[in-house]
Design the sequence.
């Protein structure tokens, strides 16, 4: 866990270099902290090194540790998944397997948050690495990424957006249910305007978007949904 002259740990250097042998040796020692960030200006952890360089072998070794944090944020505000996606897209590195491996383990991205130095990825690319547009919509709603949802619906003729799509990783919620569950009123408004049904109860919780908003104490969000339902009933 010691830092060298440039502020990096031995495990970070091994992971960053794709050195499987050294990584194995270091991880065998329970005292090795796999989540320790560098002391330099970047603060990257070993998992960031794997994701930036695209070293799948050392990443898999890290993932064997039960205490590995998949969503570590470095000093730039980037998660490991952010780093993998960014270097894949911007620098043309083939990090496809890294990205998929992280997503399978439940890693989160922050590219549409306030991450300095990591610009919003193209919706086309997000669609590629998440697998399908249904996953893009529901995950963006779950994180309340208003900017991404706005961009998608501004280009809805280009993207095949299915209002009925559900995400099994989010208890089979639809986009509007995921947004209501987090009380994200701006996204709920956009989805209501674009054919998303707040009355369905097909998620694992067997609750509608209105019920999810009410249960979460999101009064404004619940009021918007109730107003929409009332208008539909008067038609």
Sequence:
């Amino acid at each position: 866990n010691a830092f060298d002259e440039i502020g990096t740990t031995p495990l970070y250097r091994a992971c960053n270099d794709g050195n499987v042998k050294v990584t194995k040796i270091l991880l065998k020692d329970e005292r090795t902290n796999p989540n320790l960030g560098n002391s330099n200006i970047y603060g990257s952890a070993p998992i960031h090194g794997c994701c930036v360089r695209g070293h799948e072998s050392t990443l898999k070794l890290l993932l064997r540790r039960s205490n590995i944090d998949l969503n570590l944020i470095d000093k730039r505000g980037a998660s490991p998944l952010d780093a993998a996606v960014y270097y894949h897209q911007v620098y043309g590195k083939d990090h496809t397997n890294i990205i998929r491996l992280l997503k399978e383990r439940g890693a989160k991205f922050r590219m549409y948050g306030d991450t300095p130095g990591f610009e919003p990825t193209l919706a086309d690319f997000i669609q590629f690495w998440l697998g399908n547009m249904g996953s893009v919509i529901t995950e963006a709603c779950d994180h309340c990424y208003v900017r991404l949802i706005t961009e998608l619906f501004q280009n809805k003729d280009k993207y095949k957006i299915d209002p009925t799509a559900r995400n099994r990783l989010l208890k089979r919620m639809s986009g509007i249910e995921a947004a209501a569950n987090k009380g994200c009123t701006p996204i709920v408004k956009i989805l209501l305007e674009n054919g998303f049904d707040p009355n369905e109860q097909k998620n694992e919780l067997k609750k509608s978007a209105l019920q999810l908003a009410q249960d979460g104490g999101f009064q404004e969000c619940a009021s918007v949904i109730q107003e929409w339902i009332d208008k539909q009933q008067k038609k």
About this structure: The domain at 1-113 is CATH 1.25.40.20 (Serine Threonine Protein Phosphatase 5, Tetratricopeptide repeat).
